[in-house]
Amino acid sequence: MKSEISTRQFTHHCTQLLSATPRGARLARLLAVQQLDEWGRPPTCAVSESAALVVAELAANAVTHGRVQGRGFRLTLAVEESDTLRIEVVDPRGDRRPVVRRTASPDGDRGRGLLLIDALATRWGSEPWPPSGKAVWAEIALPCPVITSSESTPRSATRTVQASQAAR
User: Fold this and answer.
1) How far apart are the C-alpha atoms of 8 and 136, rounded to whole Å?
2) Which of 11, 18, 71, 105 can pair with 92 through a Cys bridge, CB separation 3.0 to 4.6 Å?
């Protein structure tokens, strides 16, 4: 068995397990906006708005296409070396990998989510998640760090938020 050592440097990191329901997908989006705000990216900035859309699409796909009865999905947000936000959603359905449709039916209500992610993200993709799941990820470039005048000390670099807190 080959083990892999990650060399990625995260300045901020947040992971949360959520239920594979429409409410879980909504909470994922709210959690992402709240977490980015705590990291100095207010809800009205372009990064936060783009991240909210990407998280909403990835979480909705996990709920719609990656759902297995009794299993949830995992959302991870990570700032890598202060210049990239990585959004990752892991679900238990590795047999259903995402496929981008280059065109969507003008009358259809499906087929636009991955096109939206493709437009908003610098890069995105998917990979197997053992034993049988998949991780779908997207990266968004971060402009210069935002520091608010009320910040006197750096915020915690690693944080896990309970879903019940995100609903408040």
Assistant:
1) 18
2) 71
CATH class of 10-96+111-144+158-166: alpha beta
Q: Would strands 158-159 and 10-18 be described as parallel, antiparallel, or unpaired?
A: parallel
Q: Determine the Cα–Cα distance for residues 48 and 11; give it in Å rounded to an integer.
A: 17
Please state the three-class secondary structure of the chain as a single string. Answer: CCCCCCCCCEEEEEEEEECCCHHHHHHHHHHHHHHHHHCCCCCCCHHHHHHHHHHHHHHHHHHHHCCCCCCCEEEEEEEECCCEEEEEEEECCCCCCCCCCCCCCCCCCCCCHHHHHHHHCCEEEEEEECCCEEEEEEEEECCCCCCCCCCCCCCCCEECCCHHHHCC
